[in-house]
Amino acid sequence: MTIKTPSAPISNPGQFYIDGQWVDPSTTHTIDVIEAATEERFFSVAEAEAADVARAVGAARRAFDDGPWPRMPPSRRAEFLRAIAQAAAKRSDDLVQLWPRETGVIAGIVPAVLQEVPGAFDYYADLADRYPFEQEVPTSSGEGFGMIVGEPVGVVGAIIPWNTPMHLAAWKLAPALLAGCTVIVKASPEAPGAAYVIAEIAEQVGLPRGVVNVLTADRDASEALVTDHRVDKITFTGSTAVGKRIAGILAERIGRYTLELGGKSAAVVLDDMDIAAAADSLTGGACFVSGQICASLTRVIVARHRHDEMLEALAERFSRVKVGNPFDPSVQMGPLASRRQRERVEGYVQIGKDEGATLAFGGNRPKDLDRGWFIEPTVFGNVNNSSRIAQEEIFGPVISVIAAADEEDAIRIANDSVFGLNASVFTNDADRAREVARRLRAGTVGQNGNRADFGIGFGGFKQSGVGREGGVAGLLPYLENKTVVLDQKPRFSSSPEGRP
After folding, report:
1. Does the keyword field hold Oxidoreductase (predicted)?
2. Using an 8 Å Cβ cutoff, are 190 and 266 in contact?
């Protein structure tokens, strides 16, 4: 199916949004955004250098230190969040053009996924009236008046990944803004379109100058954001390797950070679970964003006597997945986001073969697609959990089926990983699901599929990250607790200015 590429639905791709206005970059360097399904240039954006990052940080610093934003009552900031939610809902059609072309996600699912974006801003707007930004607490001596006050952490650098950029930007930006922080949004070179939409919305709703600043940068300039002492906190979603680098840099100056990192998530299939139903769920998950999701269930752990049945069921379903142009309504899985990403996945397919795993289906480029970064959904069987394909994040539609001696062994295998982001227990018994879930070392555990829920909270154990995003827990990293002890109770339970 041939679909003509339209122009990108953004207004100022050659500029950055800094200090409440569109500004020219410090150089003429640009980044070409390549459409994943055609390998053709979609649009180009300005590439930020260290000087541009410094300019954005300066604007955010002034806005925090001298501007009105952190001094507004949370209820007033919530009004802006609601306005952002309304504006974001109206940009759905534009994001349906951007996200599939940048990363290969199926266009048909984009509107449903994007409902969570205005939902994130509305959620934190609602929290403005419910979260205790000021709490009266008794003093240890019993004398005077004690308070705990939640103060904004300060200037935040939000580093956004390419796989689900609008969704993840919302769950970083909304709590940061409610807390009273100012933000520099750093978009990925592969998928900067969503960040430009955010900038246009910030301008549209009239956010005070410097509260939200947006630019696109590659690794060197991005590191300038992390090393700048004027940035109080970094929130990052991406690889564990980069997360370690960020944490190391911030340790030098005790900078704050939230890190949502890699995963090698386990699906533990108990003996009462129907294999066909489990295979259906796992196939759908493997195809979502072509498996380029940190929370993907990529290790399927099943009793040894059911291993072959599970492997055959997945291989059969993978063989029926239609791979192609993400704008074709009949397609079930689009391309990978880049040539580099496809080469990475193909490299791991070869590693799996070399390690002696059974390639039951996939691993090849579809024969009828000569352009675009397509690859077949892939399933390996007889995988040793100590092998590289079972231990390292592939970030593509590749699943490993691993045999366990029994339920106890399955739990041991599931926990035998440096990661701990997500997991699932496949069973029809909610009590058994709960029991096994409590024993799995993962930040989220669902039943019968990927049940990650940012409305409750999302984040990982072990090398899958530090901190949580979404829910009340997602607000806390943007606040610092301040203890205030007074001689007597003030006349106002909160300050007249409504400081958070």
Report:
1. yes
2. no
Residues 6+ apart with CB under 8 A from 237: 159, 160, 161, 168, 172, 260, 261, 294
Average pLDDT for 462-490 = 97
* pLDDT tens, residue by residue, 293-342: 999 999 999 999 999 999 999 999 999 999 999 999 999 999 999 999 99
The CA-based dihedral angle spanning residues 467, 469, 471, 476, taken in that order and rounded to the nearest 10 degrees: 50
Bridge-partner residues for 260, per DSSP?
A: 237, 465
Pairing mode of beta strands 256-260, 233-237: parallel
Q: What 8-state DSSP symbol labels residue 389? A: H
Nearest to 242 by CA among 160, 147, 182: 160
Does a structural domain hold residue 456?
no
pLDDT of residue 493: 57
- Contact call for residues 10 and 31 (beta carbons, < 8 A): no
- What pLDDT, on the 0 to 100 scale, is given for residue 6? 63
Q: Give residue-wise pLDDT tens across range 64-120.
A: 999 999 999 999 999 999 999 999 999 999 999 999 999 999 999 999 999 999 999
pLDDT score of 491: 83
Taking Cα atoms as reference points, which of 184, 189, 285 lies closest to residue 236? 184
Structural domain count, the chain: 2
pTM over the 0.90 mark? yes
CA-based nearest residue to 380, from 412, 411, 355: 355
pLDDT top residue among 5 and 233 = 233
Of 260, 376, 407, 469, catalytic: 260
Q: Which helix (H) or strand (E) holds 446?
A: strand 444-447
Calculate the alpha carbon distances from 337 to 36, 160, 358, 367 in Å: 5, 15, 26, 19
The reply to whether 260 belongs to the active site is yes
Does residue 138 share a domain with residue 285? no
CB–CB of 157/232 below 8 Å? no
Residues forming a β-bridge with 482: 149
Domain that holds residue 437: 265-447
